[in-house]
Design a protein that fits this description.
This protein is an alpha/beta fold and 467 residues long. The protein has three domains: 140 residues, N-utilizing Substance Protein B Homolog, Chain A (Orthogonal Bundle); 58 residues, Sun protein, domain 3 (Alpha-Beta Plaits, 2-Layer Sandwich); 201 residues, 3-Layer(aba) Sandwich (Rossmann fold). The strands form two sheets. Strands 5, 6, 7, 8, 9, 10, 11 and 12 form an eight-stranded mixed sheet that branches. Strands 2-3-1-4 form a four-stranded antiparallel sheet, with no helix packed on it. β2 and β3 form a beta hairpin.
Length: 467
């Protein structure tokens, strides 16, 4: 099995006229967010951040809705495999809406200890009655109650249930993606990969240099009944926040204290080797987290040209520019191929990619991407990198980066570029980022199953001055 039974583009879609869980509650919002993300209508993060029903819930129910939606998307294939076992194959013949109800029910029963089993079962049965007949509701009741019993008292068998599943089912992802991750991190890291890919993301708050600092952030976290934030060991300006979701109306965003950003992004910016007064171009810049970090480093005497062709995303970047009084940022709405002869000593090409390094916070990626997408993106990335190179001043630096772990989008793109561009050479990331993030080839690469960061790759490419 290489893809889930109802991948993107399937003719059968979830029931859209009526939400089986009703409205105004966490399960209804979770159902809506999960099914929309699975269909590939928009990135999961953007759906839940902009979902009208989410903002109407209490903070506790908001967190629960995001937890349920993201959890069922992460565990989609594993849940279907377990449903198949529990129903002796009958689950595969259920309607799409009932299958989503079953997935949400199984996820609550099997993976959410804080949700009473009886509540998960009863709400799933009631939801089933709204989209199917009494017989299917009875099946839902029987299957979920069996799942509860077997969780509390696992049946004695010669083979553990998890061992009966394929690697793709155990990791809850398509077989091709499991192969990519196992090749990258090793088959002995399979369980660590599963824990990373299928766990809630770690949220980090990147402190603004002009903000009030970590003490103010922790004061606000206490008001939100959250644990104090902890600084990252390598990048102390990044504070880890223990929460299921940081939404836009959080008190953390009422003041210009900082922005949400994974420390892995900070490593990419560090690889540029910027200093005050430098001029930089940030290609594919929106929504602007790295742009803000660059802006702070180059300071008032420097400048950063922030280029993006997406008007809506660039508008968010401009709003952040105003919010942080970053006057040295110049937003430009343009395709990178139409920038003309703009030249800078530091170029960041953080290119669009498959986002396989962000599976915890973008759980739908595993179902909306394919191996064909990886190949297509790699072809585009080679073009973008060559275009980016035309804007590098003699002796300047170009950093190519992605948030994926697929070799085709990372090392292969850089090697092809260097073979075709004798004017550039690869410089080691050593000295710019901690040694643990430097590969044998001298590139930057995180190891998400091991270090818990987003999966990023970056290469520092120097344009040789003329002889």
């Amino acid at each position: 099995m290489d893809k889930p039974r109802n991948p993107r583009g399937s003719q059968q879609r979830p029931h859209r006229a009526v939400n089986p869980f009703g409205e105004g509650n966490a399960r209804a919002v979770a159902y809506d967010i999960a099914t929309k993300a699975f269909r590939g209508e928009e990135r999961f993060e953007q759906i839940w951040k902009n979902h009208s029903g989410l903002v109407q819930l209490s903070p506790r129910d908001r967190a629960l809705a995001v937890h349920l939606a993201s959890g069922v998307l992460r565990q989609y294939r594993r849940l279907d495999a377990q449903a198949r076992i529990l129903t002796s194959g009958k689950s595969e013949g259920l309607s799409d809406a009932v299958q989503w109800i079953l997935r949400l029910g199984l996820f609550q029963v099997l993976d959410c200890d804080r949700i009473p089993a009886h509540a998960a079962v009863s709400t799933a049965v009631d939801a089933t009655k709204k989209v199917s007949h009494q017989g299917i509701a009875g099946l839902m009741n029987a299957v979920l109650r069996r799942a509860v019993r077997e969780k509390e008292a696992p049946p004695a068998t010669d083979q553990a249930p998890s061992e009966a599943l394929t690697w793709g089912e155990r990791l809850s992802m398509p077989d091709w993606m499991a192969d990519v991750l196992l090749e990258r991190f090793g088959r002995d890291a399979g369980e660590r990969i599963a824990r990373w890919a299928n766990s809630p993301p770690h949220y980090y708050f990147r402190l603004s240099r002009g903000g009030a600092g970590g003490e103010r952030v922790n004061d606000l976290l206490r008001e939100m009944h959250l644990s104090p934030a902890r600084s990252h060991r390598d990048l102390p300006e990044y504070l880890g926040v223990e929460t299921a979701a940081l939404i836009s109306d959080s008190p953390l965003f009422k003041e210009p204290l900082g922005w949400v950003q994974n420390p892995a992004a900070g490593l990419v910016v560090a690889l540029l080797g910027l200093k005050p007064g430098d001029a930089a171009i940030d290609l594919f810049a929106a929504p602007g987290g790295k742009t803000l970090a660059i802006s702070e480093i180059v300071g008032p005497s420097g400048q950063v040209l922030a280029v993006d062709k997406n008007a809506d995303r660039l508008r968010r970047l401009s709003e952040n520019k105003t919010r942080f009084s970053a006057e040295n940022i110049l937003p430009v709405e343009a395709d990178i191929a139409s920038l003309g002869e703009r030249i800078a000593t530091h170029i960041l090409a953080d290119v669009p990619c498959s986002a396989l390094g962000t599976l915890p916070k973008n759980p739908e990626v595993r179902w909306t991407k394919s191996m064909e997408d990886i190949s297509r993106l790699a072809r585009s990335q080679r073009i973008w990198l060559n275009v980016a190179a035309t804007h590098v001043a003699e002796g300047g630096v170009l950093v190519y980066s992605t948030c994926t772990v697929a070799r085709q989008e990372n090392e292969d793109v850089v090697h092809a570029f260097l073979e075709a561009n004798a004017a550039f050479e690869l410089e080691s990331a050593a000295g710019y980022v901690p040694a643990r993030y430097v590969t044998a080839d001298g590139c930057l690469a995180t190891n998400p199953p091991q270090d818990g960061l987003d999966g990023v790759f970056a290469a520092r490419l120097r344009r040789r001055p003329p002889v």
